[in-house]
Amino acid sequence: MWLDYPDPHPKDTVTPYEPICWPTGAVMDLAEPTDFAQAFGDVVAARRSNRTFGPLSLMDLSALLWYSCRSVAQRPSGLGFDLSFRPAPSAGAIHPIHVLACSQEQNIWQRYNPVRHQLIEVPDRLLPPQSAMTEISPALPIQKGTILWLAAEVGKTASKYENIASLIWRDAGALLAHLGLAASSLGLNFCPLGATGAKWGTALDETKLICGVGVALVGTPAIADVPGDIVKL
User: Fold this and answer.
1) What is the per-residue DSSP string for 183-226?
2) What is the signed CA dihedral for 176, 182, 188, 190, rounded to 10 degrees?
3) Which CATH number does the domain housing residue 169 bear?
4) β-pairing, 161-162 with 210-219?
5) Locate the Nitroreductase domain: which residues (predicted)?
6) How far does CA 93 lie from the centroid of its chain?
7) Which residue from 60, 185, 155, 62 is spatially nearest to 114, judged by alpha carbons?
8) Predicted structure pTM score
9) In a domain, 23, yes or no
């Protein structure tokens, strides 16, 4: 059944919101990737959803997040938090979606800090990696890939807008699409999944709503990726 979301619109008076204070584990600084020259047309033509995933290096993950999610600039606002300008668009420059990464090899969730270009560990008692792996594996084996979870902090968008559901879903779609293009440009395999991870973050904060709005797998290409059955037009 199709859900007919009402049109969003700015509130007459904003409702200042204090963002969630994420539980902090180990912090890992990421290196700024080296620039690369690749024609945008080539990136678009090469983009595919691939279903085989080799291990993702820290350098590759760093580059993927840098070109997709990094905060390029910030501006103060009356919403209780800074607005953020990033490669992917977001309603009101709010960017309510956190990106978290997890692989079977590491078996921990790490949240991306877009301002400092860091990965910050989330304690597994609050966000168990195994539950996510168990949920998505029947649809697509994780293999040696890395799970990316898009977790929306709903209160950020709600501070400015009424009827926010479609705004957050559109933010999620734009971010997934941009991650896919960035992965293509880096020569990585990327596949959005049907799961949203809607319930994965329920233990993170009892008073604020963290809601999963998308999941993807990313990894290095495998030998089986040779597209022998694809006809180039």
Assistant:
1) HHHTT-EEEE-S---TTTTTTT-SSS-EEEEEEEEEEB--GGG-
2) 10
3) 3.40.109.10
4) unpaired
5) 45-196
6) 16
7) 62
8) 0.91
9) no
Strand partners, 191: 217
Query: Would you state the pLDDT for residue 67?
Result: 95
The beta strand positions in the chain, using DSSP E, are 9-10, 27-29, 73-75, 83-85, 97-103, 109-113, 118-122, 146-153, 161-162, 189-192, 210-219
Q: What's the first-to-final CA gap in the chain, in angstroms?
A: 36
In a domain, 152, yes or no: yes
24 lies in some domain: no
Residue matched to tokens 């877009």: 114
Domain carrying residue 112: 41-223
CA 210 distance to own-chain centroid: 13
Whether residue 14 lies inside any domain: the answer is no
From first to last of its 233 residues, the chain has per-residue pLDDT tens of 888 899 999 999 999 999 998 878 899 999 998 877 678 888 888 888 899 999 999 999 999 999 999 999 999 999 999 999 999 999 999 999 999 999 988 889 999 999 999 999 998 777 888 888 888 988 888 999 999 999 999 999 999 999 999 999 999 999 999 999 999 999 999 999 999 998 887 777 767 788 999 999 999 997 655 454 443 44
131: left (phi over 0), alpha (psi -120 to 50) or beta: alpha
Total number of domains constituting the chain = 1
Q: What is the pLDDT of residue 54?
A: 94
Q: Which one, of 19, 17, 20, lies nearest residue 158 by Cα?
A: 17
Residue pair 151/201 in contact by the 8 Å Cβ criterion? yes
